[in-house]
Structures are given as structure tokens and as C-alpha cells.
Amino acid sequence: MNADHIIRDEAALRAIYTTPPGEASLAKQMDHLHPHYQAFIRAAPFIALATNGAASPDVSPRGEGPGFVGIADARTLLLPDRPGNNRIDSLRNIVADPRVAILFLIPGIGETLRVNGLAEISVDPVLLERLAIAGKPPRSVIVVHVSTAFFQCSRAVVRADLWNPDKRLPRSALPSTGTMLADFTAARINGAAYDDGLDERVKATLF
């Protein structure tokens, strides 16, 4: 890669992207969750949560049933932290730097919703109980104070043909989780044993 071709400041960017954003691109951005955006959030079963910690940025997938991200009010979201791998990357990052970004996706819908804001981690018993599933509360709740929200047009999803069922890969098309772990650890982790019953173990530890 030639270093002479690296863009290093906004002026250089503006020289390439000379067409200014259209009215629609600007009008859609708000400092709160408009009722239309709230409807999108209630329909979304999956998000990507981006955080920016002291060590590095990170993006984490989160998902449940539609509407799993709670709406406290037009400027506040509630994201339950369900059982996972206990790396707590996102949580550690939020403690170091509260800036977060969330991308909401809905299967079959081309548009996505982007929400940016400042987050804090709460263990308020009232919030934990509010977001409990089958009597099992989350360990904590990520409270997001919204600064901007806007929908993203469908071009990326259309280009990817993301929701086309004919484009879905069978899991066997890629290395299994156990295969990867066995290779990463020089077989200290038994790949076949790890794969055995993995789907059942995941289902048993969702909440």
C-alpha cells in the first residue's frame, strides 16, 4: 500500500466526496428517539453494539426477541447484558469511555437504525427485574443516553442481498467452533468434544 495515497485529514476527504449530503440525509438525524424510530427498535431482534475503550474499540453482537432493547423514554435505552463469554469487553470499554454506537437490524428490512450516545452500567434491582426473562434477570443493564439517532438507507443490505434465504450458508461450510479452538490451542481444547452438544449448551445458557 502506497502511503502517498492515504487520506489523513478532512480536507482531503472533502476533495474526494464533493457532493454534499441531501436534505433527506440531514433531516433524518435527531437528538431523540422519534416514535418512528421507537417502532423500529421495538421490532429489532438484533443489534451490533460498538464501544471505545482505553485499549481498543470493539463491536459486539446482541440479540433476543424483537424489542429486547427497552425504551425508557425518548432519550434513553435499556440494554440487558445476558450470559455470555464473560470477557466483558463492551462493559470494560464503557467504564473507560462512555461513548457507544448501536446498529439495529430487522430481518427482511433493508433500512437499519443507527443510535449514538453515552452509556453507563446499572445494577439497579428495579431495572434488572424489569428486564428479567423467565425469572432470570440480566447481570447488569447498559443504560444509553441518546445523542443522535437516524436511519440508514438500504443500499448496504441490498448490495449484500443479506436477507435472501437462497444466499444462506450451511454451518458446515465453515470450520466448526471446536475445530477453530483446537487449532488455536494446538489441541489443548478437544475440538470434537467441544462441538459435541454445543447447540444444546448454547440454548441452555441463553438467560
**Could you spell the SSE succession in H and E letters?**
HHHEEEEHEEHEHHHH
Number of domains: 2
CATH superfamily of the largest domain: Electron Transport, Fmn-binding Protein, Chain A
Summed over residues and divided by their number, the pLDDT gives a mean of: 96
In the CATH hierarchy, the third-tier topology of the largest domain is known as Pnp Oxidase, Chain A
Net shape: globular
- CATH class value of the largest domain: Mainly Beta
- The assigned CATH architecture of the largest domain is Roll
Radius of gyration: 20 Å
Q: What structural class do helix, strand and pairing data support?
A: alpha+beta
Which percent range fits the helix content? 25-40%
How much beta, percentage-wise?
Answer: 25-35%
Quote the distance from N terminus to C terminus.
46 Å
- SS element count, helices: 9
| Order of the strands making up the biggest sheet | 2-1-5-6-7-4-3
User: Major β-sheet, in short?
Assistant: 7 strands, antiparallel
Explain how this protein is built:
The protein is an alpha+beta fold. The protein has nine helices and seven strands, in the order αααββββαββαβαααα. The chain folds into two domains: 24-160, Pnp Oxidase, Chain A, CATH 2.30.110; 169-204, no CATH class. The chain has helices at residues 10-16, 23-27, 35-43, 89-96, 125-130, 155-160, 177-184, 191-195, 198-204; strands at 46-52, 57-63, 70-73, 76-81, 99-105, 112-122, 140-152. It is globular, with a radius of gyration of 20 Å. The relative contact order is 0.14.
